[in-house]
Structures are given as structure tokens and as C-alpha cells.
Amino acid sequence: MTAREVEVLQLVGDGLSNAEIAERLVLSERTVHAHLRSIFEKLGVNTRTAAVHAASWLFASR
Predict the structure, then answer these.
(1) What pLDDT, on a 0 to 100 scale, did the predictor assign at position 31?
(2) Would you give the DSSP letter of residue 37?
(3) Helix (H, G, I), strand (E, B) or coil at 5
(4) Which H or E run contains 60?
(5) Which residues contact residue 21 at a Cβ distance below 8 angstroms, ignoring those fewer than 6 apart?
(6) b/e string for 28-59 if b means 16 or more Cβ within 10 A?
(7) Domain count along the chain
(8) What is the C-alpha separation between 45 and 27, in angstroms, rounded?
(9) Cα gap 56→28, rounded to integer Å
């Protein structure tokens, strides 16, 4: 996962919407959505909640 994807995922975990993430990271909402699609694919999940859960498990096991 890229550093930017990790940032996006952390903000998703903080409960921010795509619009809020876009504003915080100075990105478009489309770019945030693209990052999330890439994150979902890499983690093999389909939802924001599942992505946060999978990432917390992945990073905890390191």
C-alpha cells in the first residue's frame, strides 16, 4: 500500500467522509475514491469498515 493510501485509510478509520478526506489532504473526491478502490483491491475487501478492520489486523501483525 502506498503512503497516500495509508493516509486515506487512517482518515477513513477516524470516521471521515470522502469529502472530508479530500479537503484534509487537498485532493479531489474522485482521487480519494480511486485510492479507496485501490485499497479495497489490495486488501480483498468491499467496504470501508472491512478495509479498516483488515488494515488494523495487518499492521498489528507486523
Answers:
(1) 98
(2) H
(3) helix
(4) helix 48-60
(5) 8, 11, 12, 27, 32
(6) eeebbeebbeebbeebebeebeebbebbeeee
(7) 1
(8) 23
(9) 26
Burial class (CB in 10 A: 0-12, 13-18, 19+), 14: exposed
Domain that holds residue 26: 3-60
- List the one residue out of 30, 46, 38, 45 whose CA is nearest residue 4: 38
Q: DSSP code of 23?
A: H
DSSP 8-state code for residue 46? S
CATH number at residue 47: 1.10.10.10
SS3 21: helix
Place of cell 483491491: 41
Please report which confidence band the pLDDT of residue 34 belongs to, taking 50, 70 and 90 as the band edges: very high
pTM for this one?
0.89
